[in-house]
Amino acid sequence: MRPSHLALAVLVAAVWGVNFTVIEIGLGHFPPLLFSALRFLAAALPAVFLVGRPKVAWKWIVAVGLVLGVAKFGLLFVGMDAGMPAGLSSLVLQIQAVFTAAIAALTLGERPSRVRLLGMLIALAGIAVAAVDEGASGPLGAFALVIGAAACWGASNVLTRKAAPPDALNFMVWVSTVPVLPLLALSLLTEGPARDLAALRALDWQGAGTVVYVAWITTVFGFGAWGFLLRHHPASTVAPFSLLVPVFGMSSAFLFLDEPVSPLRWCAAALLVGGVALTSLPRRRTAPPVPSAPPVASAPPVATGPTATATAPRPAYRAG
Fold first, then answer.
1. 147: part of which helix (H) or strand (E)?
2. Relative to the CA of 244, which of 143, 229, 281, 318 has its CA 20 to 30 Å away?
3. What does pTM read for this prediction?
């Protein structure tokens, strides 16, 4: 990977990590579901008019939009609003790699290797340590909501793999059109129109800036740059940079929100990041078996072509 692409990969991880601190600030201005709806509205407009028509079937766009946009981000924003710290959220969400592997095994028949199973167990141990730490200082209900968000992220990863979009930015922009109305409806039902209108009337530059960041910087720039890197490098080269997200997430929360990082949280971070790293290792490719030589016969030999062709594996896509 050339230095400019390396710097871009680190920049995207930093943008995605700082995003959790920005979300925490934005939740001081908006109810969580309204904030999530505004995020997707700003990400979809005006970008939807610039990226061209969808390049995958609408069923995949709607499915990912509901699972990733409504369920994953809805649970994340509500969990953080209920007291889940920003830095810890950036860390706990990485368990999505374990959910992705488990759901892929159940639905796609992908059997995880022993190394991946070990990584999943280590990552789960990290979640257990994080739960103990959060149970001593914060609400476990909010922690559970973020775990649910990670599970939905894993499901959306498998759906995205099935969709196999050729253009990550085009796909993400069109996916962003789906959650807007469902999230607005849920906000009106659960948060109330009075609270939503009060938040919109009190909108200031800081609140607007958080919407711009989570929509245009995190979504449009982040996924656009990530898709660019995946087009120029193998997924196994690009994907490990996502492990830097909780590093930037916890660091930015410490610097800008004065969020403490306890020894237990450092232990959880080491276990979770290490486990996810093992879970994310690329599969070892095995060479196809060489056909045995045909038995000698009295008839003249007949020239034959290749016995089999190799099928290229689908690239892996990751949603942030």
1. helix 140-163
2. 143
3. 0.83
